[in-house]
């Protein structure tokens, strides 16, 4: 959870900005999972993408599905500071999480989208996943016309 400008604590998925020069999106996701949840994953796939506010900005979000989860050894864990110091991690069964979304008890757009995508994906045996390194033309920094 984290405190937000919305004035409430938000249940969120590990997330972050692409703010390390040259870092691939999946590498940023690996870093954020390690820093925010003390976890690593053996397998990464692109779960979904969405435009955050398409009528007002070009900001795009890609959510990965991480599987083969293992804890980061205690001695190798990231020291959380500032807002990250308040992070509390929880494992929630997907059915319970989907019920919370559909009951309007979760409000973080990334969490809502990810939970519903995983819930639907399980019913389709994740047949629609794309590779973690798949092209991302909806992101302004990864459009082919933006690449020199």
What is the structure about, briefly put?
The chain has 148 residues and is of the alpha+beta class.
Order of helices and strands: EEHEEHHE
**Class computed from helices, strands and strand pairing:** alpha+beta
Tell me the fraction of residues in β-strands, as a range: 15-25%
Helicity, as a percent range? 25-40%
Task: Tell me the span between the first and last alpha carbons.
Answer: 40 Å
Protein described:
With 148 residues, this protein is an alpha+beta fold. Helices cover 25% and strands 21% of the residues. The chain contains three helices and five strands, in the order ββαββααβ. Strands 4-3-5 form a three-stranded antiparallel sheet. A hairpin with a 5-residue loop joins β1 and β2. The chain starts with a strand and ends in a 17-residue tail after the last strand. 11% of the residues are buried. The mean pLDDT is 89.
Secondary structure layout plus pairing:
Blueprint: E1 2-3, E2 9-10, H1 25-37, E3 39-51, E4 60-71, H2 94-102, H3 109-123, E5 130-131
Antiparallel strand pairs: 1-2, 3-4, 3-5
Helix pairs in contact: 2-3
Key phrases:
148 residues; alpha+beta; two-stranded antiparallel sheet; 3 helices; globular
